Amino acid sequence: MANRLSQIATRTGDDGTTGLGDGSRVPKNHLRVQAMGDVDELNSQLGVLLAEPLPEDVRELLITIQHELFNLGGELCMPGYALLKMDAVLRLDQALADHNANLPRLKEFILPAGTRSAAIAHVCRTVARRAERAVVTLAGAEPINEAPRQYLNRLSDLLFVLARVLNRANLDGLGGDDVYWHSERLKQQGD
C-alpha cells in the first residue's frame, strides 16, 4: 500500500493532476477521480448523519459502512487492487433484510422527508446512487472489481430503508412515519 499522507498541501496538483495510490498521475477530471470523489462525498454525508441522534444499532452500522467506504475509495485509488471484499456486500444484504423486516409495506412513493436524520439518510442515498453511476462509468473504461459497484447499489437501498427506520424512531419528535407522495395534490393544483 502507498505511503500515508504526511502533508496535505503538496502543490503537486497545481498542474491539474492528482496522484493515485499506485504512484501514477491522472487529470483531476479523470473518471477514476470522479468516482473517488463521489465515494468521499458519500462518506462525508454519512458523517453528517452520524452527528444526529440515532438508534445505537443504526449508528454502529453506519460507522462500519464508513470504514468500508474508505476501503472502497482506496480500491478506486489503486487500479488493480482489491480492498473491498464481497463479505461487505453480504453484510449490507443482511442489514437490509433485518431493517426492512420490521417496516410496513409501502402504500405509495415516499418523499425524501420526515425527521432530520431521515432526510439526511435520503441525501446519502442519492449520493450513493451518483457514486454507483460514477463507478459504472469508470468500469466502462477500465477494469473494476464487482464489489464496489454492488456495494454502492446495496448501500443506496439500505439508506432508503434506514430513512424509513429513522422516521419511525422519531428521535427528534418531528416525524413518526413515512411522508407519502400525494399524486392527488398535483391533480388539484392543475385544475
Automatic annotation (TrEMBL):
It is an enzyme of class 2 (transferase). Its EC number is 2.5.1.-. It comes from the Bacteria. Residues 1-27 are annotated as: Disordered. InterPro entries: CblAdoTrfase-like, CblAdoTrfase-like_sf, PduO-typ. Residues 1-10 have a biased composition (Polar residues). Residues 8-165 form the Cobalamin adenosyltransferase-like domain. It comes from Paucibacter sediminis. One of its GO terms (molecular function) is ATP binding. NCBIfam families: PduO_Nterm. Homotrimer. This is Cobalamin adenosyltransferase. It catalyses: 2 cob(II)alamin + AH2 + 2 ATP = 2 adenosylcob(III)alamin + 2 triphosphate + A + 2 H(+). Belongs to the Cob(I)alamin adenosyltransferase family. Keywords: ATP-binding, Cobalamin biosynthesis, Nucleotide-binding, Transferase. GO terms for biological process: cobalamin biosynthetic process. Transmembrane segments: none annotated.
